[in-house]
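User:
Hi there, any thoughts?
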Amino acid sequence: MIRITDVVKSYGPNRILAGASLTAHPGELTALIGPSGGGKSTLLRCINGLETFDSGSIDVFGFHLEGTGMQPQPAAVLRDVRRKVGMVFQQFHLFPHLTALANVMSGPLQVCRATRASAEITARKLLSRVGLADKADVRPSKLSGGQQQRVAIARALAVDPAAVLFDEPTSALDPEMVEEVLSVMRSLAHDGLTMLVVTHDMDIARQAHRVHQLVGGIVAATGTPAELHTLFHAPQDRTP
């Protein structure tokens, strides 16, 4: 599981996380909701070492991250954590000079030291899984936003992670493209993939096993969507 305990993170005088604690259980979809500036994306980035944190701890499927201030985690620990946890970003972050196939192959080749033949087999299976088998040789600039995000999901899955972190996976998409990404996420949830999703989209949160509301850098409420039903009728602050 992913267990976050009393994590504190500041940027100079601004405290972004003020002792956040939560648990994401294996095989579950966990949603992080709350107003912008509440620390959701920062907390997500702390889990796989994209952000350092000042104090507290994060346990990721047997690997331990400790608050180190500005010092990065040990390289060996980060490597192990990133093999366990994939990441899907709001803005896709695909390599623009690579085809969809090459983007998905990049993780197995660079992280897992797979052979090109095995990496290609894995990548083609995953592109088919997200409905893009026919786009293998297409570069990101020729794909729609929804297609790019599905390639990004396939790339995150290519290293066979124990969990995938999603940072606002649909917020950069046009409304008609959102459903194609949500469909892939529903399929992954049905298969029991552990997912932790930062979102303002209440449709995603309603499908979660458990919801955590972050406000002011702390977890202000935790429960199932049914238990936190009043939050789903409150407007979600989407300001930058």
Remarks:
- The mean pLDDT is 90.
